[in-house]
Specification:
alpha+beta, eight-stranded antiparallel beta sheet
């Protein structure tokens, strides 16, 4: 990464030489974002050109190797993508930093060989592939296409349709009937006007079902009166058939304390957040369903967009001073510092109407590019 403060100070030093003008932090941040995007976009054009030329055996001086190293800083591998509904729609809009897709892999849980790389096809080729006995997709040879709709922009559709990975967060299915317990009563530890419903109560049979059928207990904690609390692995809370939240719960089997009761637990020992301790009679505690742990998954490897740079500052004695906490460095490779300085200087020259500054920056940038291509 390139320090944004280093670039800013160098830009100011060059711009103020011979009293050419001052660049405000707001202007610099705009120019910095534009310059970073230009450099980032140029990587792909340069890579296309360099791959047409013969390389060399010294990796540190090979143009293609260097460009691939710079691009690798933006690569994200096997990001789990959410499949919405039962028609293979992957919501790319949720990957807010997505720039270009590199590879998509699909895991169909009943297919041998685990993940399969999906082939991209164009939307206008969909019927041709689907109607061809040799080209038709299968779970051993998945394909995907991209499209945008008026209500759902930027959709990726996978064929054959994967089963949604998070189906249980939308409601409780019939398959969950033997995998859940129901809250019988609650204890309000708050005021009568503002009860928080922190503690829930369940029956003996439900307690046995929870403790015995969980794949692993996180641990136990000594409670008051000699009663031990069992901290169970993550469960999901449902209300009226709809998902509320997930987390760890702490269960006490304490006859002296009023029976079997529990509450949300924090594993760091800080205790539950009262604001999140709401339980109501009839709430369902859904244990992890072992049949759902290997649902179909779609993994996307992609190149992300560079994050927006920002030179953060605070005004002290009418002067803008650098503030690290509010700053965001450039995502680019360290070797791009001088390129950033030259490009920002060129833009600043246009803004402050100093053409000689733009000309100087363009000459410096041109000399650097020429040196790289020799």
């Amino acid at each position: 990464m390139v320090s944004i403060n280093d670039v800013y100070q160098k830009v100011l030093a060059l711009a103020n030489k011979e009293q050419r003008g001052y660049i405000t932090p707001q202007e610099f941040n705009l120019f910095a974002d534009h310059a970073q995007k230009e450099i980032f976009e140029q990587y792909f054009y340069d890579l296309n050109q360099s791959m047409r030329l013969p390389g060399n055996n010294a990796g540190h001086s090979d143009i293609t190797t260097n460009l691939e190293e710079k691009i690798s800083l933006f690569e994200r591998y096997d990001k789990i993508a959410r499949v919405q509904g039962g028609y293979g729609d992957v919501m790319l809009s949720e990957l807010t930093d997505l720039y270009r897709i590199q590879m998509i892999r699909v895991d169909y849980k009943k297919t041998e060989g685990s993940f399969k790389v999906a082939e991209e096809i164009q939307l206008n080729e969909l019927n041709k592939y689907g109607s061809s006995p040799l080209g038709v997709w299968s779970k051993k040879r998945p394909v995907y296409t991209r499209y945008s709709g008026s209500s759902r922009p930027n959709i990726l559709k996978v064929y054959p349709y994967p089963e949604p990975a998070y189906i249980r967060q939308h409601g409780i299915s019939a398959a969950d009937s033997g995998n859940s317990v129901t809250v019988d009563s609650v204890v309000y530890t708050g005021t009568a006007a503002q009860p928080d419903g922190k503690y829930f109560y369940i029956t003996d049979d439900e307690y046995d079902l929870l403790v015995e059928n969980m794949s692993a207990n996180i641990g136990v904690q000594l409670g008051t009166g000699g009663a031990n609390a069992t901290i169970l692995e993550k469960v999901n809370q449902f209300r009226n058939g709809l998902f509320v939240k997930s987390g760890y719960i702490r269960i006490w089997n304490d006859p002296l304390g009023g029976g079997i009761h529990g509450r949300w637990a924090e594993l760091d020992g800080s205790g539950p957040d009262a604001a999140e301790g709401d339980w109501q009679v009839g709430d369902v505690i859904l244990m992890p369903n072992r049949n759902y742990t290997h649902r179909d998954r779609v993994l996307i490897s992609y190149i992300k967009k560079p994050s927006k740079p920002n030179w953060g500052y605070e005004i002290i004695n009418e002067k803008a001073l650098y503030k690290l906490e509010n700053s965001n460095d450039f995502d680019l490779h360290d070797s791009e510092e001088s390129e950033l300085v030259y490009r920002i200087l060129a833009l600043a020259g246009l803004a402050i109407q100093k053409p000689e500054l733009t000309q100087t920056a363009a000459a410096l940038e041109g000399a650097k590019v020429q040196q790289e291509k020799q």
